[in-house]
Amino acid sequence: MNKMLEQLFKVAGKEKRTIIGLMSGTSLDGLDIALCEFEGNGTQTRMKLREFVTMPYDETFKREVKAVFSKREVDLERVCLLNAYIGRFHADLINKSLQTWGVESADVDVIASHGQTIYHAPASLHGVAGMPDATLQIGDGDHIAMGTGIITLSDFRQKHVAAGGEGAPLAVYGDYLLFSEQDQNRIMLNIGGIANFTFLPGDLDTSRIFSTDVGPGNTLMDAYVQQQFPGTYYDADSAIALKGTYNQALVASLLYHPFFEQDFPKTTGPELFNLSYLAEAQRRSDTEHLSPEDVMASLNRFSAVAISGALTRSLGDSDFEIFLSGGGMHNPLLIQNIKALLPGATVRDTAELGVSPDAKEAVLFATLANECLVGEPIEFGPGKRRVPSVLMGKISLPE
Ligand SMILES: Nc1ncnc2c1ncn2[C@@H]1O[C@H](COP(=O)(O)OP(=O)(O)OP(=O)(O)O)[C@@H](O)[C@H]1O
Ligand SMILES: CC(=O)N[C@H]1[C@@H]2OC[C@@H](O2)[C@@H](O)[C@@H]1O[C@H](C)C(=O)O
To answer: N or C: which end of the chain has fewer CB within 10 A?
Structure first.
């Protein structure tokens, strides 16, 4: 038998597995690396987060990725080069982190790599007749496996698409396994570039569980800040938005898109929510004259209304607790806006559930890898075509 397959077989049979989860999101702030310890699988999963770090990306790397990210026309050679480069680069960042933590690569069983999304194209967005839902993550797993010497599972989203999903959100699987709680309706709200949430009903009825994207997130705020204030990457502590006042006409115009009417679950990305989207909304609402501060306040309000509107629409009057994660939870005006729009909702964060909110997405990918190795497909019930019952991840062997 192939020695590496034998090792994989051994890992699957171990009582405890050490898994590194990786996430590189739409914000391009850095690579999230979570070193996790797993015992069990399925609803018996026990996960301990041993270490976590975000390895920041430098300007050159951000520029390289931005040149192809969510663009319909790109230099195909760049995409080809980046696919290999990102894999190697991520391997280097993992090696550095392991060194800092004093952990040997031989003590890590597998890596779970999300890769870098460069294009997300659900059929509802691309609208090309005869073409399926599609999504593309680069940073090939073979380069990570060879660069670290660790078996790597990667490219989780393709199986989801192949089985009838849109390739996202994948959070539903890990959220269900790690955070479901009897008698408590939980909303796991992640505010990254794009905001998404998972509904975990307290009756643990899997057929009611779902995850969905709700719109931005930070992506439009980040893009606008970067355009208006070169050298600034995001509106740290809402400093800019707090100097402005939101414009109701602009907020309404930003919300004027069929995406917001579509049923859950649905997915989106900066392919839709980008600076052209903002320019069109400003033109339509005759708000091109607004100061950058007022536009920032309006974008902040827009994200809050989109998030709270989606929650209200799907949950009605039922009681629920919100557990925040993702960088947007550090934006005080955004959180204040969301709380004001959802009076009565309890808002906490995932640290209270034992997982740092910045680490949560990387932990979720580690959980998907654990399931791929030792789990069984979760059945979310009939009619859940968009939450397929599959195990995900492609295997790259380091020899
Ligand atoms: N102190 C802060 N004040 C305001 N915003 C902040 C702060 N800290 C982080 N953010 C926001 O969080 C973003 C990073 O969030 P995160 O790392 O969750 O995104 P991501 O994982 O790339 O996104 P996605 O989940 O959509 O892939 C930053 O770009 C910024 O907009
Ligand atoms: C295609 C893609 O990379 N989507 C990401 C993105 O970032 C947030 C939101 O958009 C979500 O749908 C997804 O990531 C999370 C981890 C998910 O799949 O659950």
So the answer is: N
Distance from Cα 2 to the centre of ligand 2, integer Å:
34
ipTM over 0.95: yes
Could you tell me if 341 and 372 lie in one domain?
no
- Whether 176 and 315 map to the same domain: the answer is yes
In this structure, which residue's CA is closest to atom 14 in ligand 2?
169
State mean pLDDT over 12-33.
Answer: 96
Query: Which tens digit of pLDDT belongs to each residue from 225-274?
Result: 999 999 999 999 999 999 999 999 999 999 999 999 999 999 999 999 99
d(CA 78, CA 281): 32
- Exposed/middle/buried for residue 58 (C-beta within 10 Å: 0-12, 13-18, 19+): exposed
User: Count of domains in the chain?
Assistant: 2
311 and 385 share a domain?
no
Q: Residue 215: helix, strand or coil by DSSP?
A: strand
Q: Whose CA is nearest to atom 9 of ligand 2?
A: 194
Q: How many helices (H) and strands (E) would you count in the chain?
A: 13, 12
Residues 102 and 191 grouped into a single domain:
no
Give the pLDDT confidence score for residue 104 in this predicted structure. Answer: 98
Domain encompassing residue 291:
171-353
Shared domain check, 201 and 150: no
Contact 370, 43 (CB under 8 A): no
- Residue whose CA is closest, atom 15 of ligand 2? 169
b or e along 19-48 (b: 16 or more beta carbons within 10 Å of the residue's beta carbon)? bbbbbbbbbbbbbbbbbbebebbeeebebe
21 and 124 inside one domain: yes
The CATH number assigned to the domain holding 229 equals: 3.30.420.40
Q: pLDDT for 80-133, tens place per residue?
A: 999 999 999 999 999 999 999 999 999 999 999 999 999 999 999 999 999 999
- Closest Cα partner for 65 from 93, 74, 145, 121? 74
25 is in an annotated binding site: yes
The closest-lying atom of ligand 1 relative to the alpha carbon of residue 237 is: 3
Task: Kindly state the helix (H) or strand (E) to which residue 186 belongs, with its residue range.
Answer: strand 186-191
